[in-house]
Amino acid sequence: MVWASGWRLASAVSNAGGLGLIGSGSMYPDVLRKHIRACKAATSKPFGVNIPLLFPNIETHINIVIEEGVKIVFTSAGNPSTWTSILQKEGIKVVHVISSSKFAKKAEDAGCDAVVAEGFEAGGHNGREETTTMVLLPSVCKSVKIPVISAGGIATGRQMLATMIMGADAVQIGSRFVASEEASSHINFKERIIQSQEGDTMLMMKQLTPVRLLRNNFFKEIFEAEHRGATIDEVKLLLGRGRAKRGMFEGNLDEGELEIGQVSALINDILPAAEIVKNIWNEFNEALNKPLL
Q1: Range(s) for CATH 3.20.20.70 in the chain?
Q2: Quick one: 278 exposed, middle or buried, by C-beta within 10 A (0-12, 13-18, 19+)?
Q3: Over 90: is that where the pLDDT of 127 sits?
């Protein structure tokens, strides 16, 4: 949710009854502090911060969430054992995002309070194993005793219910909220999402850091490079700096990096976050209460 989930989206989701998360991966330390303070001013409900553990300013980000009194941190893209106990000593709940049962067990051993089992369908950074949510979720539920949150390919109430049947305690939803009014993503990107169809995304850059991208000129460059056997350094050179910002935040649909999940094919409108939460919850209850034939 880099370049998409700032304080406006996080507070709107929390005010609507969900748990809003600030995506700190695209934020400098001073920007993260401003977003946390703005979120606290905009909601009296709990909210959290997602911190990629490979972030170059990780220690500064950790100190900021502690200093600002954030009570929930979702960690991703790294080893949770380094920071989990430090955060928990400050009364912070720690949830770690994983893409396999092996890493779920490591997160549990590191003392995490819960894990997010994120399947291959998800947008953004992803697992190299390409394990779908349908397979990953029940496997992770069998592997750990801590709560399991399902992610990847979820945008509707029926999908939420399906994950609950498979053992999930909750769901984490990203792509649906990128196409919300409060998301800081560019309107060009939002409109491209609601126009997308099945097959318009693909997992790329697996030798570097796997990420699911919408097809555009940048996608084509990476695809061709990888298929001719480009080295990691060549891929890094193509990626350059600021590609994600250029695409998702500045709206350059040709040369920017456009990260989104497969479920974008089911997203057809840009709505207020509160309406998205309401629609998901209503559909969940409708499906839950539907009599069996």
Answers
A1: 7-184+264-287
A2: middle
A3: no
CA dist., res. 271 & res. 289, Å (int): 26
**Distance, CA of 1 to CA of 20 (rounded, Å):** 11
Structure confidence by residue, pLDDT tens digits, 93-103: 999 999 999 99
Class of 7-184+264-287 in CATH: alpha beta
Type of residue found at 276? I
Span 235-247, pLDDT tens digits: 888 887 788 889 9
